[in-house]
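Narrative of accomplishments. A recurring question from our advisory board has been how the design workflow behaves on a single, concrete structure rather than in aggregate. To address it, we present the structure tokens for one chain from the evaluation set, followed by the sequence designed for it. No filtering or post-editing was applied between the two.
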């Protein structure tokens, strides 16, 4: 028996299913993706490599947070929890943990509340137990996971990832640019800040003044996101380290011997530095058209009237 957020479940499986699954997780996969695609950032396929790094980054965040909350809620039923958790539930768990508003959740650890310091203490406090740097690792990973959480729940990040994942709806090219022009008479020259990496995609947005019963009417907004691929190379490395340690924690919770587990940490503490450039390297611009529908048009735009028109066109 376990819960996904507040949703209860009960699952049956063959003996050792949970342990076998945990032993089979490739915790170095996202590090591998970073190493492979970073090599192409200076070549003719640099924009494709940037897209691969960007989608890998979000995929890595999703994987990490799925495993973290499976560890918090259902360490003895990881497979079942992962199969039942929906994306919307995961994002809500992440957001509520960041805000400190997460309600008490069903877990064997009896956490009264969830915050990134508490979650990090649960996981990293155990795997680094007895080491001199245990408390430092707890604090560092808590800060890192909170920064990851901010990217994971950012609306434009989700929209961009979905645009690449579902039908490749994004156009890849240069990102947003900014031009600064000095005042007349100044000796300085105009300069431009831009990026060679970026994506353009469209997203559905509600009308400014939606009417009840007309949710099927929407406007299309234009989004432009800058991609800083070098930031994501280091981020993917830290995601890989984090996944490895969460899996190690889960294996300990399932009775695996500590001697057979590898605990990882970055070679330099600077990798945790919250003052470093944004891990996602994200700068977003959204243009929302001001769409106004005259009141006398609404009777023609009900679902039934639209369907009638479509039938006439067939």
């Amino acid at each position: 028996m376990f819960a996904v957020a507040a949703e209860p479940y009960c699952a049956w499986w063959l003996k050792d299913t949970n342990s076998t699954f945990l032993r089979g997780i490739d915790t170095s996969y996202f590090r591998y993706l970073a190493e492979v695609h970073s090599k192409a950032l200076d070549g003719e396929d640099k924009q494709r490599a940037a897209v691969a790094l960007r989608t890998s980054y979000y995929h890595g965040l999703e994987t990490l947070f799925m495993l973290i909350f499976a560890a918090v809620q259902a360490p003895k039923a990881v497979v079942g929890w992962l199969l039942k958790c929906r994306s919307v539930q995961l994002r809500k768990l992440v957001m509520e943990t960041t805000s400190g508003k997460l309600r008490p959740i069903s877990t064997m650890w009896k956490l009264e509340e969830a915050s990134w310091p508490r979650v990090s203490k649960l996981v990293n406090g155990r795997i680094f137990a007895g080491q001199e740097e245990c408390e430092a690792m707890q604090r560092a990973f808590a800060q890192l996971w909170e920064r990851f959480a901010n990217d994971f729940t950012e609306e434009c990040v989700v929209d961009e990832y979905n645009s690449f994942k579902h039908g490749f709806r994004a156009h890849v090219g240069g990102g947003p640019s900014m031009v600064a022009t000095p005042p007349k008479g100044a000796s300085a020259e105009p300069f431009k800040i831009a990026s060679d990496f970026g994506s353009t995609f469209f997203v559905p947005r509600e009308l400014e003044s939606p009417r009840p019963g007309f949710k099927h009417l929407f406007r299309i907004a234009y989004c432009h996101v800058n991609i800083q691929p070098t930031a994501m190379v280091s981020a993917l490395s830290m995601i890989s380290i984090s996944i490895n340690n969460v899996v190690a924690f889960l294996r300990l919770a399932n009775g695996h011997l500590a001697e057979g587990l590898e605990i990882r940490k970055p070679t330099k503490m600077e990798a945790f530095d919250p003052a470093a450039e944004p891990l996602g390297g994200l700068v977003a611009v959204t243009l929302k058209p001001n769409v106004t529908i005259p009141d006398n048009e609404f009777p023609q735009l009900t679902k039934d009237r639209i369907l009638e028109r479509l039938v006439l066109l067939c």
